[in-house]
Design brief:
The structure holds two protein chains of two kinds. Chain A is an alpha+beta fold. Chain A is 40% helix and 18% strand. Chain A contains eleven helices and nine strands. Chain A has helices spanning 6-23, 30-39, 45-52, 58-96, 117-131, 145-148, 188-197, 236-251, 303-308, 325-333, 346-351, and strands at 135-136, 142-144, 180-182, 201-210, 221-231, 256-261, 266-275, 292-301, 317-324. In chain A, the strands form two sheets. A seven-stranded mixed beta sheet of chain A has the order 1-4-5-9-8-7-6, sandwiched between helices. Chain A is rod-shaped and about 135 Å long. By secondary structure, chain B is an alpha+beta fold. Chain B is elongated. In chain B, the strands form ten sheets. In chain B, strands 27-31-32-36-35-34-33 form a seven-stranded mixed beta sheet, sandwiched between helices. In chain B, strands 3, 4, 5, 6, 9 and 10 form a six-stranded antiparallel beta sheet that branches. A five-stranded mixed beta sheet of chain B has the order 12-15-18-19-20. Chain B is 26% helix and 26% strand. The chains are: A alpha+beta, B alpha+beta. At the A-B interface, helix 5, strand 1, strand 2, strand 4 and strand 5 of A face helix 2, helix 8, helix 9, helix 11 and helix 13 of B.
Chain lengths: 352, 811
């Protein structure tokens, strides 16, 4: 035997690599183990060659030993790589085999619930006004005539009272019903807030109100949001500016139209239309081809109201507005009958 | 209020804008146009045709076949009218036309003969009640043209929503006046040519006012020799177009003047007035009157009446009496009638109270209670008298018979341009204001008053009772100037202090938690029936509606639960096989408390839970919820609100099942109740199948029991020691007692205590249950030695044995 001459080593390497190349495609690792043992094992070719180094002339030993060792290492690494790749592939294969059906619905205790569409709007609108610095004030739903009408400048026995068909409430012990009622609007909260805090004041008051009326667009109970801003120098232009900001926040920037109207507790009294949110003013069924939607009543607080609340009407001015939330909810969600809102039908509530 | 555009144009000769523009202007003035009726639309499809031939119907004696031509084509129409003749120009309803009476023209056979349309009578066209025969037009009516054009039926009627402050706009004159002021046109005038004859009116009748506060003026005219009959055609047409039924020349005259000038008038039969006398007085208590509409009213002393020498003959400002009606019936009288025509001003409040008391609302009361124009009394009277004389013949006797009551003087109104500028938020000059206000009929006054400084003083016209203070004048200036040009502006942000509490709105917070737990939010009407309220609050504390919509809404809800149960029932009806429901409501409940001014309103939260624990799916079983699922929801709310000192204790509620009826409390205060719904209540509400679980809490108290903001504590650095204990106790021993016993014996190192198993049945002695408890011990400063834990555990076992006769299980 000639020992590990370069020729011998390159022959060994060529044969090893050829065998390794062929082995790549086979299943399992047995062939690779066998290959390792026949070349690199205790009785493998390279091990034997390494042993034969001692029989070489001393001057050749160093190089031959180093070359053989280097080759042994290189071949071992090459074999390890193939072995590792093979194991990785096998593991990958194993992981793929347990593929799950994710077209099945997920596991959940319950689908999310839903906030009632009216309350969703109340929260949204309240947030918009809160960002403009309005506090929230609340008042009773069973109200005194004094606050619902009298201090709001609806004189006793005035036809303006006919504008709001009223539910009257018996007193305790079935007493006379005349001076207690279900509030017909959230405006009495203006009075209560001004009496409690005086001026300046900036509040909104969302709440339920009641009118003796029931058809597809009227429910005997519905929701309003009242707004009141009183300070020195507050003007009708401010009312317009604040409402423009509000409308922009709720529906996006769009024109507003103010029309003279009448509510006893404001002077001037205003009806506010916004450009139709469905047709952007082109005219459609919802806006009855007018391009405008009537959304709220407003005006400058009547001096009699200020006087009734102990606020100096010469020093302070202010605006008030009242917004019907139900109508907005019906518009937003295309609800055709207001009764749906208050029937507690899970199918309806789950839809929106 | 219906307004004829033609009439407006005749009052305002300079008004040549198209209808759309007039509509927009009126709306801009605050006289909102709510509807528009083009009269010609009602007659669409009806054309002028000529009768070419009339032949008998082969099968029916009373019918005839008319061949008519519209100038282009001939067609045959079966006609039953007796007056159809060859050569007439008539109104032909062509096929496809729908007439005002609702009839639609379709090709059909009448007694075997095909008829292509119909020759119309006036009633079928909605032109009158006349059905004597078909409408015969002028021989010059243009063939084939629309009937509306041929008869000049082309007016547009606008429906105006007149707000209660504007009685002046309840007439054509008033609407025209506002338009004139806006457009800068001459204010409309009505010319009256009245010829007076015979002896003075004061010789024929007398007028007395006994209640000068409620009747500031009463003027009457006497017209003799009146022949009652129909009014002229144009008057009838006009009344009909404006929604009124023509009655007779005299009554139509009063109605036409009402529509023209807004002033209510009434015509009495002078000879039915005892003593030929008018007396404006209070009714005697219990006095009766039969009114024009046939109803009889029993009057009270507060009612203002028009009486003759003896009895009431009209309810002042509301309706005339039956006995003194001008009817033209001549029985026992001369063929002509003597009329006393009334024009007066009555106090608005008086008219309103009487009208309400007697459940009446008339055109007259509508105007008087809003405030008629005292300056219109004599003019309207003369106008009407002139019409009667013209249409019904007769003699208008010289002079008005007038009695005066008291008219409250109106205060002058100050106006400051700078105040107007400030309130409107735009520059208003005094010149602009003066110009506008003058056009609206106000007059400037020369007054030397100190307050308010720098004011110009105005006097409002008699027809504007709504103008009383400076803000009213500012509105008029704003209204005439229009708001379209007003630039929106934001006020300086400073000013109003924040008055809202810092906590999050408890309703919003509860809503978020429950929605996350799968609950739908509902809102119910706050009314309920007595039957539903039963058992949820003592009936003596119910808040009752005096004028409910019906039995269903007699009581303001004392609890949110009944409405939720109604919803549960409604949903059960929709999907009877699956009664799954998670629903909640936030709202107020109402009950009388100690105070008798207003009832107590409490913000509450109620929820209902029934059906499956989770959505039916491949991944879940169909287990139904039980009361512990309900308690879990409540605990979720407790956690979010950090309710202080919260505990649950037995508390009987009539609507809850006795086995689980429970209160949730904070300290001594009960915050709410929950449990399984009482089976009787479930029956009452028609709930069948899966049991129903309900909670109702007082959200005000709940939020008030909110604990402080959480504070961070250092996380433990040392490991805990855990031990599980398993033991038998008597079945009636409650978990709370077990916990209390353990805690009484435990060292401070006991960090956690959790009951993780409750079991009765196989392997457990009768009358006992098995409980398993996980105990966690930890000390902050040292690792606990086994010995420490063993001795703690021994003490706990001993306490359980002593307190509850608990026996430790083996292992």
């Amino acid at each position: 035997m000639a020992g590990p001459t370069p020729e011998v080593l390159s022959d060994v390497e060529a044969r090893f690599r050829a065998a390794l190349g062929e082995a790549t495609s086979s299943e399992g690792v047995d062939d690779l183990i066998a290959l390792r043992s026949s070349f690199l094992g205790p009785k493998g070719e390279l091990t034997l060659l390494l042993r034969s180094v001692g029989k070489l002339p001393p001057e050749d030993r160093r190089d031959a030993g180093a070359n053989t060792n280097k080759l042994k290492q290189a071949l071992g690494t090459a074999l390890d790589e193939v072995l590792e790749a093979r194991e990785r592939a096998a593991k990958e294969e194993e992981l793929r085999r347990s593929r799950q059906d994710l077209t099945l619905p997920g596991r959940r205790a319950m689908p999310f619930g839903r906030v009632h569409p009216v309350n969703r709007l109340v929260e949204e609108i309240s947030d918009i006004f809160a960002r403009m610095g309005f506090s929230v004030a609340r008042g009773p739903e069973v109200e005194l005539d004094l606050f619902n009408f009298e201090k709001l400048n609806f004189p006793d026995d005035h036809p303006a009272r006919d504008m709001q068909d009223t539910f009257f409430v018996h007193g305790k012990d079935e007493g006379a019903p005349t001076d207690r009622l279900l509030r017909t609007h959230t405006s009495p909260v203006q009075i209560r807030a001004m009496e409690a805090h005086g001026a300046p004041i900036r509040v909104i008051s969302p709440g339920r109100v009641y009118r003796f009326d029931a058809d597809a667009t009227h429910s005997p109970m519905f929701h309003q949001i009242e707004g009141l801003w009183v300070d020195e120098g507050i003007s009708l232009a401010h009312l317009k500016g604040v409402l423009e900001s509000f409308v922009a926040a709720l529906f996006g920037q769009r024109p507003l139209r103010l029309r003279p109207s009448f509510f006893p507790f404001v002077e001037p009294g205003i009806e506010v239309d916004i450009q139709c949110v469905f047709c952007d003013g082109d005219g459609c069924r919802v806006c009855k081809q007018t391009g405008w939607m009537e959304v709220l009543g407003a005006g400058m607080v009547h001096p009699n109201v200020f006087t009734a609340c102990g606020v100096d009407p010469e020093k302070y001015t202010g605006f008030a507005f009242g917004l019907g939330v139900d109508r907005l909810a019906m518009l937003r969600y295309a609800i055709d009958d207001i009764a749906h809102l208050y029937r507690g039908d899970a199918r309806f509530l789950g839809q929106l | 209020m219906l307004v004829s555009v033609d009439w407006l144009r005749s009052l305002l000769p300079g008004l040549d804008a198209p209808v759309e523009v007039i509509s927009a202007r009126l709306t801009g003035l605050g006289l909102e146009v709510e509807g528009e009726n083009r009269l010609a639309d009602a007659l669409r499809g009806v054309v002028v045709a000529e009768v070419v031939r009339v032949e008998p119907h082969p099968k029916a004696d009373k019918l005839r076949l008319a061949t008519v031509s519209d100038g282009a084509r001939e067609q045959t129409v079966v006609c039953g009218a007796p007056n159809v003749e060859e050569g007439q120009r008539v109104a032909l309803a062509t096929l496809g036309t729908t007439l005002p009476n609702g009839m639609t023209m379709e090709p059909r056979k009448i007694r075997g003969v095909a008829s292509e349309g119909m020759l119309c009578a006036e009633d079928e066209l909605g032109l009158s009640e006349d059905h004597e025969g078909i409408l015969v037009l002028s021989p010059t009516a243009p063939l084939g043209r629309p009937l509306s054009e041929a008869i000049g039926y082309e007016d547009v009627v606008l429906e105006l929503g007149i707000t209660p402050n504007r009685p002046d706009a309840l007439s054509h004159l008033g609407v025209a006046r506002d338009l004139a002021a806006l457009e800068g046109l001459a204010s409309p005038e009505i010319e009256i040519s009245l010829r007076e004859e015979g002896g003075p009116a004061t010789d024929l009748a007398s007028v007395h006012i006994d209640d000068p506060e409620r009747c500031s003026k009463y003027a009457a005219r006497v017209i003799t020799g009146v022949t009652i009959g129909p009014s002229p055609r144009w008057v009838q047409d006009r009344l009909r177009a404006l929604g009124q039924r023509p009655i007779s020349n005299v009554v139509d005259a009063t109605n036409l003047v009402l529509l023209e000038q807004g002033h209510p008038l009434h015509a009495f039969d002078l000879d039915a007035l005892g003593g030929h006398e008018i007396r404006v007085r209070r009714a005697a208590e219990g006095e009766k009157i039969r009114l024009l509409d046939g109803t009889e009213k029993q009057l009270v002393g507060e009612d203002l009446v028009i009486a003759d020498a003896e009895v009431p003959v009209a309810l002042a400002g509301i309706m005339g009496g039956f006995e003194s009606e001008v009817t033209g019936e001549t029985e026992g009288r001369s063929a002509t009638t003597r009329v006393l025509l009334e024009s007066a001003w009555f106090d608005p409040t008086s008219v309103r109270k009487t009208a309400k008391r007697h459940g009446m609302h008339t055109e007259a009361s509508h105007r008087f209670e809003r405030g008629a124009d005292p300056g219109r009394v004599e003019i309207a009277l003369d106008r009407c008298a002139a019409f009667i004389a013209e249409w019904a013949g007769g003699t208008v006797h010289p002079g008005q018979v007038v009695a005066e009551g008291e008219m409250r003087a109106r205060d002058p109104i100050p106006f400051r341009a700078e105040r107007a500028s400030m309130l409107l938020g735009r520059k208003v000059t005094l010149a602009e204001a003066k110009d506008g206000l003058t056009r609206l009929g106000l007059k400037t006054l020369k007054l030397k008053r100190k307050q308010p400084a720098g004011a110009t003083w105005f006097e409002a016209p008699s027809w504007r009772p709504d103008l009383g203070i400076e803000a009213d004048l500012i509105e008029e200036v704003g209204r005439l100037g229009g708001y379209d040009g007003l630039e929106g502006a934001l006020p300086a942000a400073a000013g109003a202090p924040w008055t809202h509490p810092p906590e999050r709105d408890p309703e919003a917070e509860a809503r978020d938690v429950l929605v996350g737990m799968g609950f739908l939010e509902t809102i119910s009407l706050a009314f309920t029936s007595a039957a539903r309220a039963e058992g949820f609050e003592e009936a003596s504390r119910w808040v009752r509606i005096a004028n409910p919509l019906g039995e269903e809404s007699r009581v303001m809800r004392p609890s949110l639960v009944p409405a939720l149960l109604q919803s549960a029932r409604h949903n059960q009806d929709q999907l009877p096989s699956i009664a799954d429901l998670r629903m909640f409501e936030l709202g107020r409940t109402f009950a009388w408390g100690d105070d008798d001014t207003l009832p107590v309103e409490v913000n509450r939260l109620a929820l209902v839970l029934r059906g499956r624990r989770s959505v039916r799916s491949w991944a879940s079983d169909d287990t139904l919820v039980d009361v512990y699922d309900l308690k879990g929801v409540l605990e979720g709310l407790q956690d979010v609100f950090r309710v202080r000192d919260v505990y649950h204790r037995r508390a009987e509620r009539t609507w809850l099942h006795p086995r689980s009826s429970t209160a949730v409390a904070s300290g001594e205060q009960e915050l709410g109740y929950y449990g399984e719904l009482h089976p009787d209540v479930a029956d009452r509400f028609g709930l069948e199948g899966a049991p129903v679980f309900v909670v109702e809490i007082d959200l005000d108290r709940w939020a008030a029991a909110r604990g402080p903001e959480p504070r961070h504590r250092a996380l433990p650095k040392l490991p805990p020691a855990q031990r599980d204990l398993s033991f038998f106790v008597d079945t009636e021993i409650e978990a709370a007692a077990v916990e209390a016993s353990i805690r009484s014996a435990a060292p401070p190192e006991l960090e956690g205590l959790r009951i993780f198993d409750v079991y009765e049945g196989k392997g457990v002695p009768a009358g006992k249950k098995s409980l398993a408890v996980e105990l966690t011990f930890r000390a902050a400063d040292r690792t606990l030695a086994d010995g420490d834990v063993e001795s703690s555990q021994a003490a706990i076992v001993e306490a359980l044995r002593r307190d509850l006769r608990a026996e430790l299980r083996d292992g």
